[in-house]
Specification:
It is a single chain. This protein is an alpha+beta fold. Helix content is 32%, strand content 23%. The chain is built from 21 helices and 30 strands. It starts with 8 loop residues before the first helix and ends with a strand. About 1% of the residues have low confidence.
């Protein structure tokens, strides 16, 4: 049988049945421009006389002489901005880095993402080729985010090589990649997918504005880009997404073009539509606590960027932006707490390697917009060069007067979006934990409920497997799975069933029952309900206790009636791991910062362990095995092997797993963990009722007790299996007296130093 090949945009982009070339100047003026506008009188006259070249030049003069409202700055003010850039930033580290990157682009060496680059001989661009091992690289090539380096290098130096490079590049692209005639290519990953079209509208606006007065930016190419902006806006207006971060980026692009080219006949409708619809999509994307709903700090930043780029633009155009301010400030608060001590994003969901400078730029903008010293603490000491093009030269002095101070809280809980963050301090190298316990929407969310990442000593010690590449292959299926995260797999299945790659259902329902931050410890207690779909439902709860500033205790609890297999995973960074089976200890063996995982010593009796549980079936451990295996770790643009600690327990009824994780430098401390009895009403409580531990090391020892029996985690679901309203949840039971470590207690969290 002959196999046919599916044709796509690459093969059909010059076929007039599927694509539309840019219109001739005369047709554009007659059909696209609102020639009744008074400022277009000369354009109208020249076009009526058949002088298309003259009409073009008159229209371009009008754009170049505009007093403002098209962009963050007036086109005619670019020379003043260039002078300010040179005086305030010329010769500085950031400016030199911009120029160096622009020089590479001029040579044909173009940055994509994840550290990959594409190199083209002079003028031989391939906009539609397959780059490396993912379509993502080609998409980033054609979104043109990197053109900001050309325009900003031009502003710093005045060197026409950067304008000439942009002129050549964009002219080639517009000739080689005509717009689709309809929606034939709408669902493909290709140059004219609606997301890439939306992103191009705001990425190309800055070089269009900065290069506009350059003699190297040819009038013919300027006019082509104007026409293409119109095609982009019309295409996105018709085919933009109706959900998620794509819709926000596309509407931001639509608003950008409508403001940039108000003389277009449809610009007024595009602007009104974008301003009307954008708030709806922001509300859809952002939970009331400020967390973006895709359970990925990276896509939190993506949607947040649309807002923090849009607000200054609307202000420059003298349009109302106040309705976005509360949401944007909340998103900045979330981002500030999520940032690791090294200024990166924790790699939760589809979050990869961070651009620390971009994150600091964002926090600097937040500091400027809201006058907040805690945002500036995470940003730069002086206004970064990148913000000059959003805020103008007058912002340099104002930003410099703003004080800087760390946030007063070192822990934060965002109960709707489901991020919990705890840290030792706001200094670099501090201990840090981020945990996810919320519902994620869309395909960028992973099956990672109750997963956590841990940092100390400037390094990710308990690591996420990463985002991977967006191809629906075995590697991608691994990194989105539950076993690729620092949580627990029950009976070998993911927490939620993922079908199509991007058409993923919401992740497991979660409930954060308790969060507190005290001088001695930070504590969080949360549950997820993804495994209640089983015939014998299983509820997984996790309690994490950060004993300042020594270690983390992680206790996993499982509510069930029948036999299940619980596989608890902790992923370690690539490198060597050392397993001591007799001491139930596993540690990394890196050069500077490391993690030691210690498990309670098993009972001397190797047989099944039974606890008679009042009012319930007995808790029976059939097997409990600690394994060191190999996982898959994605960083920047490739996969590598990494050590993974797996504890596999087979149990009947309720179950408990306890793990102590201790950070250290180069020499592993001597830490031991053993069970301590917890007694009430004349009997020893089962581990799923109360976890009692003695954690010991050189010079210190802690008696730890977490009491579990007072909060019914199953009360979160009603008889139909759906979450109940918060107002209907029962209050925790009163904790009766119990004995632990030689004292009587009525508390659910006990951290008692022992001498």
């Amino acid at each position: 049988m002959t196999q046919t090949k599916t044709l796509g945009y690459k093969e059909l982009r010059k076929d007039p049945r599927f694509t539309v070339p840019l219109p001739a100047d005369g047709d554009f003026f007659a059909r696209e421009l609102d020639l009744d506008r008074p400022e277009l009188a000369e354009v109208r006259r020249l076009a009526a006389e058949g002088d298309a070249a003259g009409a073009r030049d008159a229209y371009l003069r009008l754009i170049g002489s505009d007093e403002g409202g098209r962009y963050y700055f007036a086109f005619r003010d670019v020379p003043k901005l260039m002078k300010a850039a040179r005086e305030a930033y010329g010769g500085g580290e950031e400016a030199l880095a911009v120029i160096a990157e622009a020089d590479r682009i001029v040579s044909g060496d173009i940055p994509l993402f994840k550290g990959k680059r594409a190199v083209f001989p002079r003028g031989a661009f391939d906009w539609n080729g397959w780059l490396y091992d993912s379509s993502q690289y080609q998409l980033h090539l054609t979104r043109f985010a990197y053109t900001k380096f050309l325009s900003r290098a031009y502003a710093l130096t005045g060197d026409e090589i950067y304008a000439a490079c942009f002129n050549e590049m964009i002219g080639h692209f517009l000739d080689d990649c005509p717009a689709p005639a309809g929606d034939a290519f709408r669902v493909q990953h290709n140059t004219w997918e609606p997301l890439s079209a939306g992103v191009r509208m705001f990425h190309l606006a800055e070089p269009f504005a900065i290069f506009f007065g350059s003699p190297s930016f040819a009038p013919e190419v300027k006019m082509k880009l104007v026409k293409s902006f119109a095609q982009h806006a019309r295409y996105v207006r018709k085919y933009h997404a109706d959900h998620g971060n794509h819709a926000c980026m596309q509407l931001r692009g639509l608003i950008q073009v409508a403001l940039l080219l108000p003389e277009l006949r449809e610009a007024g409708e595009w602007l009104a539509y974008g301003l009307r619809e954008m708030p709806k999509y922001i509300r859809q994307n952002v939970y009331p606590d400020g967390v973006q709903f895709e359970a990925s700090p990276n896509y939190h930043l993506v949607v947040m960027r649309d807002l923090y780029e849009l607000v200054p633009l609307l202000r420059a155009a003298k349009l109302e932006a106040s309705e976005y301010m509360e949401t944007l400030e909340n998103m900045f608060v979330v981002l500030n707490h999520l940032l690791t001590p090294e200024g990166e994003l924790p790699r939760i969901g589809d979050t990869g390697a961070s651009d620390v400078r971009e994150l600091r730029d964002a926090m600097s903008l937040g500091a400027y917009l809201f006058g907040r010293p805690d945002f500036k603490f995470a940003g730069h000491a002086r206004l970064p060069f990148a913000l000059l093009w959003r805020l103008g030269p007058e912002a340099i002095e104002r930003y410099g007067r703003l004080p800087s101070a760390p946030p007063s809280e070192t822990a934060a809980c965002f109960p709707v979006g489901g991020y919990v963050v705890s840290r030792q301090s706001w200094e670099r190298g501090a201990m840090y934990m981020a945990m996810r316990a919320g519902v994620g929407i869309n395909g960028h969310a992973h099956s990672d409920a109750l997963g956590l990442v841990l940092y100390a000593g400037g390094k990710e010690l308990v690591a996420d497997s990463g985002m991977g590449l967006y191809e629906w292959n075995k590697e991608r299926k691994y990194v989105v799975s539950t076993r690729a995260h620092n949580t627990v797999v029950v009976d070998g299945q993911d927490q939620h069933v993922r079908g199509l790659h991007w058409g993923a259902p919401p992740t497991a329902a979660c409930k954060i029952w308790d969060f507190r931050s005290e001088s001695r410890f930070d504590y969080v207690f949360a549950s997820h309900y993804g495994y209640t779909r089983y015939e014998d439902p299983v509820i997984h709860s996790r309690k994490t206790l950060f004993v300042k500033n020594r270690y983390w205790l992680v206790v996993d609890l499982f509510e069930a009636k029948e036999r299940h297999v619980y596989e608890q995973y902790f992923h370690l960074p690539p490198g060597e791991a050392v397993y001591d089976p007799t001491g139930r200890r596993i540690r990394t063996n890196g050069p500077d910062a490391n993690a030691l995982l210690v498990y309670p010593q098993p009972d001397a009796d190797p047989g099944p362990k039974r606890f008679a549980a009042t009012g319930s079936s007995p808790f029976i451990v059939l097997s409990d095995e600690l394994i060191l295996e190999s996982g898959l770790y994605f960083e920047k643009s490739g996969y590598s092997a990494n050590p993974v600690v797996k504890r596999a327990m087979s149990a009947v009824g309720k179950a408990e797993l306890a793990t102590v994780i201790v950070p250290f430098g180069t020499e592993a401390p001597a830490v031991s963990v053993r069970r301590l009895p917890v007694r009430a009403d004349g009997r020893e409580l089962a581990p799923w009722e109360a976890t009692g531990l003695l954690v010991e090391s050189d010079g210190w020892a802690d008696a730890i007790c977490l009491y579990h029996a007072h909060v019914p985690a199953d009360s979160y679901l009603d008889h139909t299996g759906n979450p109940v309203k918060a107002s209907l949840l029962p209050e925790p039971d009163v904790i009766g007296a119990f004995e632990f470590a030689g004292e009587t207690w009525r508390e659910d969290v006990i951290v008692k130093p022992v001498r």
